Write the C-alpha coordinates for this entry.
Amino acid sequence: MNLLSIGGSDPSSGAGIQSDVKAFSEFNAHALTVITAITGQNTTSFGMIEPVSKRILKNQLESVLSDFKIDGIKIGMVYNSEIIKTLYQQLKKLKIPIVVDPVIKSTTGGSLIEKSAIVDFKKYIIPLATVITPNKFEAEILSKTKVNSKNTIEKTAKIIQKMGARNVVITGIEGKNNRITDFVLEKNTEYEISGDKIVNTNHGSGCNYSAAMIFAISSNKTIRESVKFAKEFTYNSIKNAKKVGNGIKITDIQNHDKINSELSRAINEFVEIKNIYKNIPECQTNFVYSKQNPRSTKDILGISGRIVKTGKEVTVAGNLTYGGSKHVATALLVVNKKFPKTRSAINIKYQNSSISKIKKLKLIVSSYDRTNEPNNIKNKGSTVEWGIKNAIKNLQAPPDIIFHKGDFGKEPMIIIFGDTPKSILHKLLKIT
Protein backbone atom coordinates (compact mmCIF):
# COMPACT_ATOMS: atom_id res chain seq x y z
CA MET A 1 0.00 0.00 0.00
CA ASN A 2 1.27 3.49 -0.91
CA LEU A 3 0.10 6.38 1.28
CA LEU A 4 0.89 10.03 0.57
CA SER A 5 1.33 12.59 3.33
CA ILE A 6 1.06 16.25 2.36
CA GLY A 7 2.10 18.63 5.11
CA GLY A 8 4.78 20.50 6.99
CA SER A 9 8.19 19.33 8.14
CA ASP A 10 8.67 19.12 11.92
CA PRO A 11 12.37 18.79 12.91
CA SER A 12 11.38 17.31 16.29
CA SER A 13 9.61 14.44 14.45
CA GLY A 14 6.73 14.83 16.85
CA ALA A 15 4.19 15.77 14.19
CA GLY A 16 3.90 16.61 10.50
CA ILE A 17 5.56 14.70 7.69
CA GLN A 18 8.06 12.93 9.94
CA SER A 19 5.32 11.63 12.23
CA ASP A 20 3.29 10.35 9.28
CA VAL A 21 6.27 8.47 7.83
CA LYS A 22 6.69 6.68 11.17
CA ALA A 23 2.98 5.86 11.34
CA PHE A 24 2.71 4.60 7.76
CA SER A 25 5.81 2.47 8.26
CA GLU A 26 4.22 0.96 11.37
CA PHE A 27 1.26 -0.06 9.18
CA ASN A 28 3.70 -1.66 6.71
CA ALA A 29 2.67 0.91 4.09
CA HIS A 30 5.10 2.77 1.84
CA ALA A 31 5.17 6.46 2.81
CA LEU A 32 5.27 9.11 0.09
CA THR A 33 5.64 12.77 1.07
CA VAL A 34 4.99 16.22 -0.32
CA ILE A 35 6.30 19.02 1.89
CA THR A 36 4.32 22.26 2.01
CA ALA A 37 6.40 24.16 4.57
CA ILE A 38 9.54 23.93 6.70
CA THR A 39 9.04 24.71 10.38
CA GLY A 40 11.52 25.39 13.14
CA GLN A 41 10.14 23.91 16.36
CA ASN A 42 11.00 21.62 19.24
CA THR A 43 9.29 20.35 22.37
CA THR A 44 9.50 23.71 24.17
CA SER A 45 8.78 26.36 21.54
CA PHE A 46 7.80 27.20 17.99
CA GLY A 47 10.16 29.22 15.78
CA MET A 48 9.85 30.05 12.09
CA ILE A 49 7.79 28.85 9.13
CA GLU A 50 9.11 28.90 5.57
CA PRO A 51 6.47 27.83 3.02
CA VAL A 52 7.77 26.10 -0.11
CA SER A 53 7.35 27.79 -3.49
CA LYS A 54 4.45 26.97 -5.79
CA ARG A 55 6.96 25.63 -8.30
CA ILE A 56 8.56 23.01 -6.05
CA LEU A 57 5.22 22.09 -4.49
CA LYS A 58 3.74 21.38 -7.92
CA ASN A 59 6.86 19.44 -8.95
CA GLN A 60 6.67 17.26 -5.82
CA LEU A 61 3.03 16.47 -6.50
CA GLU A 62 3.58 15.69 -10.17
CA SER A 63 6.54 13.47 -9.31
CA VAL A 64 4.66 11.19 -6.92
CA LEU A 65 1.32 11.21 -8.76
CA SER A 66 2.92 10.23 -12.08
CA ASP A 67 5.02 7.37 -10.74
CA PHE A 68 3.09 5.66 -7.94
CA LYS A 69 -0.29 4.03 -7.50
CA ILE A 70 -1.44 5.94 -4.45
CA ASP A 71 -4.02 4.27 -2.22
CA GLY A 72 -4.74 7.18 0.12
CA ILE A 73 -3.77 10.78 0.81
CA LYS A 74 -3.53 12.69 4.07
CA ILE A 75 -3.46 16.50 3.96
CA GLY A 76 -2.08 18.26 7.04
CA MET A 77 -0.45 21.69 7.22
CA VAL A 78 -1.12 23.84 4.13
CA TYR A 79 -0.23 27.30 5.53
CA ASN A 80 -1.20 29.78 2.77
CA SER A 81 -3.62 30.32 -0.12
CA GLU A 82 -1.05 29.67 -2.83
CA ILE A 83 -0.34 26.22 -1.39
CA ILE A 84 -4.05 25.53 -0.98
CA LYS A 85 -4.92 26.42 -4.58
CA THR A 86 -1.98 24.46 -5.98
CA LEU A 87 -3.03 21.36 -4.04
CA TYR A 88 -6.61 21.71 -5.20
CA GLN A 89 -5.64 21.92 -8.87
CA GLN A 90 -3.53 18.78 -8.61
CA LEU A 91 -5.89 16.70 -6.48
CA LYS A 92 -9.43 17.68 -7.50
CA LYS A 93 -9.86 14.99 -10.17
CA LEU A 94 -8.36 12.10 -8.20
CA LYS A 95 -10.58 9.20 -7.15
CA ILE A 96 -8.53 8.43 -4.04
CA PRO A 97 -9.60 8.56 -0.36
CA ILE A 98 -8.40 11.78 1.25
CA VAL A 99 -8.28 12.55 4.96
CA VAL A 100 -7.91 16.22 5.86
CA ASP A 101 -6.38 17.11 9.21
CA PRO A 102 -7.09 20.85 9.55
CA VAL A 103 -4.07 21.80 11.61
CA ILE A 104 -4.43 25.41 12.69
CA LYS A 105 -2.16 25.69 15.70
CA SER A 106 0.83 23.68 16.93
CA THR A 107 0.86 22.24 20.45
CA THR A 108 4.00 24.31 21.00
CA GLY A 109 2.19 27.52 20.09
CA GLY A 110 2.81 28.27 16.40
CA SER A 111 0.08 29.22 13.91
CA LEU A 112 0.15 26.65 11.12
CA ILE A 113 -2.13 28.49 8.69
CA GLU A 114 -2.38 32.16 7.81
CA LYS A 115 -5.68 33.68 8.94
CA SER A 116 -6.30 35.01 5.44
CA ALA A 117 -5.99 31.47 4.04
CA ILE A 118 -8.79 29.92 6.11
CA VAL A 119 -11.43 31.08 3.60
CA ASP A 120 -9.60 29.32 0.77
CA PHE A 121 -9.07 26.27 2.99
CA LYS A 122 -12.84 25.98 3.38
CA LYS A 123 -13.43 26.57 -0.34
CA TYR A 124 -10.77 24.28 -1.83
CA ILE A 125 -9.43 21.77 0.72
CA ILE A 126 -12.50 20.74 2.71
CA PRO A 127 -14.42 19.62 -0.44
CA LEU A 128 -11.57 17.19 -1.19
CA ALA A 129 -12.10 15.38 2.11
CA THR A 130 -13.44 11.88 2.32
CA VAL A 131 -13.07 12.52 6.05
CA ILE A 132 -12.07 15.69 7.89
CA THR A 133 -10.76 15.28 11.46
CA PRO A 134 -10.80 18.58 13.37
CA ASN A 135 -10.54 18.69 17.13
CA LYS A 136 -13.10 20.80 19.01
CA PHE A 137 -10.97 23.97 18.76
CA GLU A 138 -10.41 23.53 15.02
CA ALA A 139 -14.08 22.72 14.42
CA GLU A 140 -15.09 25.97 16.14
CA ILE A 141 -12.67 27.99 13.98
CA LEU A 142 -13.87 26.40 10.74
CA SER A 143 -17.58 26.66 11.57
CA LYS A 144 -17.34 30.10 13.23
CA THR A 145 -19.42 28.74 16.11
CA LYS A 146 -18.69 28.17 19.77
CA VAL A 147 -19.82 24.74 20.93
CA ASN A 148 -22.27 25.25 23.81
CA SER A 149 -25.84 24.42 24.78
CA LYS A 150 -27.14 26.49 21.84
CA ASN A 151 -24.61 25.43 19.23
CA THR A 152 -24.25 21.70 19.70
CA ILE A 153 -21.43 19.56 18.37
CA GLU A 154 -23.92 18.11 15.87
CA LYS A 155 -24.68 21.56 14.49
CA THR A 156 -20.99 22.39 14.22
CA ALA A 157 -20.30 19.15 12.32
CA LYS A 158 -23.16 19.79 9.90
CA ILE A 159 -21.83 23.28 9.13
CA ILE A 160 -18.46 21.74 8.20
CA GLN A 161 -20.10 18.97 6.18
CA LYS A 162 -21.98 21.58 4.13
CA MET A 163 -18.59 22.95 3.09
CA GLY A 164 -18.10 19.73 1.10
CA ALA A 165 -16.54 17.11 3.38
CA ARG A 166 -18.31 13.78 2.98
CA ASN A 167 -17.69 12.71 6.56
CA VAL A 168 -16.82 14.79 9.63
CA VAL A 169 -15.11 13.46 12.76
CA ILE A 170 -14.73 15.98 15.60
CA THR A 171 -12.19 14.55 18.01
CA GLY A 172 -11.31 15.02 21.65
CA ILE A 173 -14.63 16.07 23.16
CA GLU A 174 -14.26 15.78 26.91
CA GLY A 175 -17.07 14.06 28.75
CA LYS A 176 -17.93 12.79 32.21
CA ASN A 177 -16.16 10.02 34.14
CA ASN A 178 -12.78 10.76 32.56
CA ARG A 179 -14.04 9.80 29.09
CA ILE A 180 -13.21 11.41 25.76
CA THR A 181 -15.48 11.22 22.73
CA ASP A 182 -15.23 11.53 18.96
CA PHE A 183 -18.40 12.74 17.25
CA VAL A 184 -18.94 11.24 13.78
CA LEU A 185 -21.20 12.65 11.08
CA GLU A 186 -21.57 10.48 7.99
CA LYS A 187 -23.94 11.18 5.11
CA ASN A 188 -27.04 9.70 6.69
CA THR A 189 -26.06 8.95 10.25
CA GLU A 190 -24.33 10.39 13.29
CA TYR A 191 -22.90 8.72 16.38
CA GLU A 192 -20.26 8.96 19.08
CA ILE A 193 -17.32 6.72 19.89
CA SER A 194 -15.89 7.13 23.38
CA GLY A 195 -12.79 5.96 25.19
CA ASP A 196 -10.72 6.55 28.28
CA LYS A 197 -8.97 9.89 28.60
CA ILE A 198 -5.24 10.12 29.26
CA VAL A 199 -4.27 13.30 31.10
CA ASN A 200 -1.10 13.99 29.14
CA THR A 201 -0.01 17.06 27.17
CA ASN A 202 1.71 15.69 24.10
CA HIS A 203 2.90 16.50 20.61
CA GLY A 204 1.66 14.45 17.66
CA SER A 205 -1.62 12.80 18.64
CA GLY A 206 -3.68 14.62 15.99
CA CYS A 207 -1.27 13.57 13.25
CA ASN A 208 -1.35 9.98 14.48
CA TYR A 209 -5.14 9.98 14.42
CA SER A 210 -5.45 11.21 10.83
CA ALA A 211 -2.60 8.95 9.64
CA ALA A 212 -4.34 5.91 11.13
CA MET A 213 -7.62 7.09 9.64
CA ILE A 214 -6.31 7.22 6.05
CA PHE A 215 -4.65 3.83 6.44
CA ALA A 216 -7.90 2.27 7.68
CA ILE A 217 -10.04 3.86 4.96
CA SER A 218 -7.54 2.85 2.29
CA SER A 219 -7.78 -0.70 3.66
CA ASN A 220 -11.52 -0.59 2.84
CA LYS A 221 -12.69 -0.31 6.42
CA THR A 222 -15.97 1.51 7.05
CA ILE A 223 -15.95 4.99 8.58
CA ARG A 224 -17.03 3.54 11.94
CA GLU A 225 -14.30 0.89 11.84
CA SER A 226 -11.74 3.51 10.76
CA VAL A 227 -12.66 5.82 13.64
CA LYS A 228 -12.31 2.97 16.14
CA PHE A 229 -8.97 1.98 14.65
CA ALA A 230 -7.67 5.57 14.67
CA LYS A 231 -8.88 6.13 18.21
CA GLU A 232 -7.18 2.99 19.54
CA PHE A 233 -3.94 3.74 17.67
CA THR A 234 -3.87 7.30 18.98
CA TYR A 235 -4.71 6.22 22.54
CA ASN A 236 -1.72 3.87 22.53
CA SER A 237 0.55 6.56 21.07
CA ILE A 238 -0.42 8.95 23.87
CA LYS A 239 -0.09 6.24 26.52
CA ASN A 240 3.44 5.50 25.30
CA ALA A 241 4.46 9.17 24.88
CA LYS A 242 8.06 9.88 25.84
CA LYS A 243 9.92 12.92 27.12
CA VAL A 244 12.74 13.03 24.57
CA GLY A 245 13.39 16.78 24.75
CA ASN A 246 13.19 19.41 27.47
CA GLY A 247 9.52 20.21 26.91
CA ILE A 248 6.29 18.30 26.30
CA LYS A 249 6.23 14.59 25.54
CA ILE A 250 6.23 13.25 21.98
CA THR A 251 3.81 10.46 21.18
CA ASP A 252 5.40 7.08 20.55
CA ILE A 253 3.67 5.18 17.78
CA GLN A 254 5.80 2.06 18.03
CA ASN A 255 3.60 -0.98 18.34
CA HIS A 256 4.96 -2.71 21.43
CA ASP A 257 2.70 -5.69 20.78
CA LYS A 258 4.99 -7.71 18.50
CA ILE A 259 2.26 -10.29 17.98
CA ASN A 260 -0.03 -7.59 16.55
CA SER A 261 2.77 -6.12 14.44
CA GLU A 262 3.81 -9.48 12.94
CA LEU A 263 0.26 -10.60 12.20
CA SER A 264 -0.70 -7.23 10.73
CA ARG A 265 2.32 -7.34 8.42
CA ALA A 266 1.49 -10.89 7.32
CA ILE A 267 -2.15 -10.01 6.62
CA ASN A 268 -1.04 -7.08 4.47
CA GLU A 269 1.20 -9.46 2.50
CA PHE A 270 -1.58 -12.07 2.26
CA VAL A 271 -4.09 -9.73 0.64
CA GLU A 272 -1.50 -8.73 -1.98
CA ILE A 273 -0.84 -12.32 -3.15
CA LYS A 274 -1.83 -12.69 -6.79
CA ASN A 275 -5.20 -14.44 -7.27
CA ILE A 276 -5.49 -15.14 -3.54
CA TYR A 277 -9.23 -14.51 -3.84
CA LYS A 278 -9.51 -18.02 -5.32
CA ASN A 279 -8.50 -19.45 -1.93
CA ILE A 280 -11.11 -17.66 0.19
CA PRO A 281 -13.84 -20.10 1.33
CA GLU A 282 -17.54 -19.29 1.48
CA CYS A 283 -17.28 -18.83 5.25
CA GLN A 284 -14.35 -16.42 4.59
CA THR A 285 -10.84 -16.50 6.09
CA ASN A 286 -9.27 -15.67 9.43
CA PHE A 287 -5.57 -15.41 10.25
CA VAL A 288 -4.52 -15.83 13.88
CA TYR A 289 -1.42 -15.60 16.07
CA SER A 290 -1.31 -16.50 19.76
CA LYS A 291 0.57 -15.40 22.82
CA GLN A 292 2.96 -17.86 24.42
CA ASN A 293 1.07 -20.67 26.18
CA PRO A 294 -2.48 -19.46 25.43
CA ARG A 295 -5.12 -20.52 27.94
CA SER A 296 -8.13 -19.65 25.80
CA THR A 297 -9.05 -18.03 22.48
CA LYS A 298 -8.85 -14.68 24.30
CA ASP A 299 -5.07 -15.11 24.20
CA ILE A 300 -5.16 -15.49 20.42
CA LEU A 301 -5.10 -12.46 18.14
CA GLY A 302 -7.44 -12.62 15.16
CA ILE A 303 -9.64 -10.49 12.94
CA SER A 304 -12.91 -9.49 14.59
CA GLY A 305 -14.56 -9.89 11.19
CA ARG A 306 -12.97 -11.84 8.35
CA ILE A 307 -10.77 -11.56 5.28
CA VAL A 308 -13.48 -11.49 2.61
CA LYS A 309 -13.57 -11.88 -1.14
CA THR A 310 -14.60 -8.75 -3.07
CA GLY A 311 -14.62 -9.67 -6.73
CA LYS A 312 -11.05 -10.58 -7.68
CA GLU A 313 -9.59 -8.91 -4.62
CA VAL A 314 -9.74 -9.58 -0.89
CA THR A 315 -10.54 -7.14 1.88
CA VAL A 316 -9.90 -7.19 5.60
CA ALA A 317 -13.28 -6.59 7.23
CA GLY A 318 -12.70 -5.94 10.92
CA ASN A 319 -9.87 -5.15 13.31
CA LEU A 320 -7.21 -7.28 14.96
CA THR A 321 -8.49 -8.22 18.41
CA TYR A 322 -7.57 -10.80 21.02
CA GLY A 323 -10.50 -13.19 21.00
CA GLY A 324 -11.51 -11.91 17.55
CA SER A 325 -11.54 -15.40 16.02
CA LYS A 326 -13.57 -18.37 17.18
CA HIS A 327 -13.10 -21.35 14.86
CA VAL A 328 -9.53 -20.88 13.60
CA ALA A 329 -8.41 -19.77 17.07
CA THR A 330 -10.01 -22.89 18.61
CA ALA A 331 -8.17 -25.10 16.10
CA LEU A 332 -4.88 -23.37 16.95
CA LEU A 333 -5.51 -23.65 20.68
CA VAL A 334 -5.97 -27.44 20.42
CA VAL A 335 -2.79 -27.89 18.36
CA ASN A 336 -0.80 -25.57 20.63
CA LYS A 337 -1.63 -27.63 23.73
CA LYS A 338 0.18 -30.60 22.22
CA PHE A 339 2.76 -28.65 20.18
CA PRO A 340 3.49 -25.35 22.02
CA LYS A 341 5.70 -23.94 19.24
CA THR A 342 2.72 -23.82 16.87
CA ARG A 343 1.24 -20.37 17.41
CA SER A 344 -0.26 -19.28 14.10
CA ALA A 345 -2.93 -20.55 11.70
CA ILE A 346 -5.07 -19.59 8.70
CA ASN A 347 -8.03 -21.28 7.02
CA ILE A 348 -8.33 -21.44 3.23
CA LYS A 349 -10.71 -22.97 0.71
CA TYR A 350 -10.57 -26.73 0.19
CA GLN A 351 -9.54 -27.44 -3.40
CA ASN A 352 -8.39 -30.70 -4.97
CA SER A 353 -5.56 -28.83 -6.69
CA SER A 354 -4.28 -27.62 -3.31
CA ILE A 355 -4.49 -31.12 -1.83
CA SER A 356 -2.51 -32.49 -4.81
CA LYS A 357 0.26 -29.94 -4.23
CA ILE A 358 0.25 -30.64 -0.49
CA LYS A 359 0.74 -34.37 -1.08
CA LYS A 360 3.80 -33.71 -3.26
CA LEU A 361 5.46 -31.57 -0.60
CA LYS A 362 7.31 -32.78 2.47
CA LEU A 363 4.65 -31.46 4.84
CA ILE A 364 3.06 -33.08 7.86
CA VAL A 365 -0.57 -33.48 6.87
CA SER A 366 -3.54 -34.87 8.77
CA SER A 367 -7.31 -34.85 8.36
CA TYR A 368 -10.55 -35.81 10.04
CA ASP A 369 -13.93 -37.00 8.83
CA ARG A 370 -16.84 -34.81 9.93
CA THR A 371 -19.33 -37.53 9.03
CA ASN A 372 -18.01 -39.51 12.02
CA GLU A 373 -18.73 -36.72 14.46
CA PRO A 374 -20.88 -37.87 17.42
CA ASN A 375 -24.27 -36.19 17.81
CA ASN A 376 -23.47 -34.97 21.32
CA ILE A 377 -20.45 -33.09 19.91
CA LYS A 378 -22.56 -31.54 17.14
CA ASN A 379 -25.18 -30.45 19.65
CA LYS A 380 -22.55 -28.80 21.86
CA GLY A 381 -21.15 -26.93 18.88
CA SER A 382 -17.60 -28.16 19.57
CA THR A 383 -16.92 -29.69 16.16
CA VAL A 384 -13.61 -27.89 15.62
CA GLU A 385 -12.12 -29.05 18.92
CA TRP A 386 -13.26 -32.65 18.34
CA GLY A 387 -11.98 -32.70 14.77
CA ILE A 388 -8.54 -31.24 15.48
CA LYS A 389 -8.01 -33.53 18.49
CA ASN A 390 -8.74 -36.51 16.27
CA ALA A 391 -6.44 -35.23 13.55
CA ILE A 392 -3.42 -34.82 15.83
CA LYS A 393 -3.84 -37.66 18.34
CA ASN A 394 -1.35 -39.93 16.55
CA LEU A 395 1.05 -37.21 15.38
CA GLN A 396 4.56 -37.08 16.84
CA ALA A 397 5.42 -33.74 15.23
CA PRO A 398 3.34 -30.58 14.75
CA PRO A 399 1.07 -30.54 11.68
CA ASP A 400 1.58 -28.19 8.75
CA ILE A 401 -1.87 -28.89 7.31
CA ILE A 402 -5.14 -30.26 8.68
CA PHE A 403 -8.15 -30.61 6.39
CA HIS A 404 -11.62 -32.12 6.27
CA LYS A 405 -13.95 -32.78 3.34
CA GLY A 406 -17.04 -31.34 4.98
CA ASP A 407 -20.43 -32.83 5.79
CA PHE A 408 -24.04 -32.15 4.86
CA GLY A 409 -24.36 -28.36 4.82
CA LYS A 410 -20.79 -27.98 6.07
CA GLU A 411 -18.05 -26.56 3.88
CA PRO A 412 -14.79 -28.53 3.50
CA MET A 413 -11.73 -26.68 4.77
CA ILE A 414 -7.95 -26.53 4.88
CA ILE A 415 -6.13 -25.04 7.89
CA ILE A 416 -2.43 -24.21 7.67
CA PHE A 417 -0.44 -24.16 10.93
CA GLY A 418 2.96 -22.68 11.72
CA ASP A 419 5.21 -21.16 14.36
CA THR A 420 4.69 -17.60 13.07
CA PRO A 421 2.52 -15.77 10.51
CA LYS A 422 5.60 -15.54 8.29
CA SER A 423 5.95 -19.32 8.26
CA ILE A 424 2.26 -19.61 7.37
CA LEU A 425 2.77 -17.42 4.29
CA HIS A 426 5.81 -19.50 3.27
CA LYS A 427 3.71 -22.69 3.32
CA LEU A 428 0.71 -20.99 1.70
CA LEU A 429 2.72 -19.85 -1.32
CA LYS A 430 3.80 -23.45 -1.92
CA ILE A 431 0.28 -24.83 -2.13
CA THR A 432 -1.69 -22.06 -3.83
